[in-house]
Amino acid sequence: MTWTIYLSGEIHTDWRAQIETGARAAGLPVAFTAPVTHHGASDDVGVAILGPEPDKVWHDHKGARINAIRTRTLLDKADIVVVRFGDKYKQWNAAFDAGYASARGKPLIILHSEEHAHALKEIDAAALAVARTPEQVVAILAYVIDGVLDGYTDREDAAP
Fold it and tell me: Does domain 3-34+79-146 match CATH 3.40.50.720?
């Protein structure tokens, strides 16, 4: 089986690439999906396709609705959802994706720094795991997909 992992959240660091590289190195049978991470394309998709809007609110609404087609479809198809909250910017989209995934019963891994633990406590409470680094996410994926934990063998009676 190939597991589908949806990577949601901040777009200003290379955390997605780190997870994808780590999963490849671990030989995990995974396929990754994500929202459109080109900020300009994501913001302007509605007016680029459906025509201009003089009011910025309606400009944003057109784009948000078209982006939601992709986001909802890929979240619904995901086996596991990883949501990253970065250190900069207010990430309302990431919070919405976490809530949507939780409501759909998707296994949820949240990724953020210790600094945001208090602000994200409700989201963390809905998650099955809260990681601090992309490497921890890869280790979680390796364990849940292959049952592999470094330092342990496949036999209970074997020494670690």
Answer: no
